[in-house]
Amino acid sequence: MNNLNSSSVKKLEIILSGEHQAFATDLLDNAGVTGYTIINNLSGKGRHGFHEGHLMFNEEDVLIMIIAAVPDKLVEPILDGLEPFYSEHSGVVFVSDIQVTRLVKFSS
Does residue 73 carry a pLDDT above 80? Predict the structure, then answer.
């Protein structure tokens, strides 16, 4: 474990309706994000009340979270791309400072 050095990056947790997954992943891909994780069927409580994460009719009718670790320089362009989307749709983005090992996995 002594050979695993850590590097600082930002973690984006993008929560939105599954029907908009392609919009968000296209935005990340176009920004140069090299990878991300998608979690389906989220449950939680927000301003609009409780949201049940069970699969209703299809994967587009549920909330999803897309998690990406990105260099600092990509955060602002990604948030700028999401801003008009969130003025019309529900959801949220969490931005956190994190440490990762194997930085090469997070840069192009």
Answer: yes
